[in-house]
Amino acid sequence: MPHLPFKAVIPAAGLGTRFLPATKAMPKEMLPVVDKPAIQYVVEEAAQAGIDDILVIIGRNKNAISNHFDSVPELEDKLKDKGDTERLRRVLESSDLADIHFVRQGEPKGLGHAVLRAQAHVGEHSFAVLLGDDLIDERDVLLETMLAEHERTGAAIIALMEVDPDHVEAYGVASVEQTDTDGIVKVTGLVEKPKKEEAPSNLVIIGRYVLAPSVFEILERTEPGKGGEIQLTDALQELAADPDGPGVYGVIFRGRRYDTGDRVDYIKAIVQLAADRDDLGPALRPWFKEFAARL
């Protein structure tokens, strides 16, 4: 059977309580990172990896997300009339990135439940899940490697990153075995947000997964776990423990990742990305040095 093209799923139904009151009326995924909303970076990453069919899982009060990726003829016409071609290009870019669809999650029952809501759209395609809190720098390759590894093995592929052992309690943590390929490990077990002393390693899951559609069958019978939610980690644990299945492999990411789910890290992400830009960096970098010297 020929390989079907990959689809992408972006869960975006969270309440964003850590950013209140900014997220009282605005989805956290629409918070600007320099001059683009966070979710646009994620859609761009999927498109750059060759995925042009994207499903966004949304909740209540998330219409701003669909509006952002829609065309706005009156704005486009105004920019055309002004001859503002650069801003026009950037506005058009967000609506031309991919074929973007939306479905509501309904009740916020966890990441596993959000992924399950994608079943009808995904069908028989393998698919990538990209969380909007984790931004991967466009200069670093991750998703392409994960897609290739899934095609090679048929396994579920997760992105892993080494963190300080003091921080493992905020993540799903993997126990792994080395493979013959540098940067690729076989995942033998997963535990959600363990205490430091109970963590099997300091390799944590960051928000990128590549899954076969068979994961839906597991999610349908996965009982609520930590926090009373249906955890994707629990379904992955079942896949990793199945001796007859293709298993779970991890791609260890050593590049630049920006965590926008935490207020301090969100500010750091803006500073780092702005400082690296050709249009903003030259003015900002000297100021950063002056500001740091005053601290």
UniProtKB/TrEMBL annotation:
Entry's Gene Ontology BP terms: UDP-alpha-D-glucose metabolic process
Keyword terms, alphabetized: Nucleotidyltransferase, Transferase
Catalysed reaction equations from the record: alpha-D-glucose 1-phosphate + UTP + H(+) = UDP-alpha-D-glucose + diphosphate
Alphabetized InterPro entries for the sequence: GalU_uridylyltTrfase_bac/arc (IPR005771), NTP_transferase_dom (IPR005835), Nucleotide-diphossugar_trans (IPR029044)
Keyword hit for Transferase: yes
EC assignment: 2.7.7.9
Nucleotidyl transferase domain sequence ranges: 7-273
Keyword Membrane: no
GO molecular function, a single term: UTP:glucose-1-phosphate uridylyltransferase activity
Family from the record: Belongs to the UDPGP type 2 family.
PANTHER family: UTP--GLUCOSE-1-PHOSPHATE URIDYLYLTRANSFERASE
Protein name per the record: UTP--glucose-1-phosphate uridylyltransferase
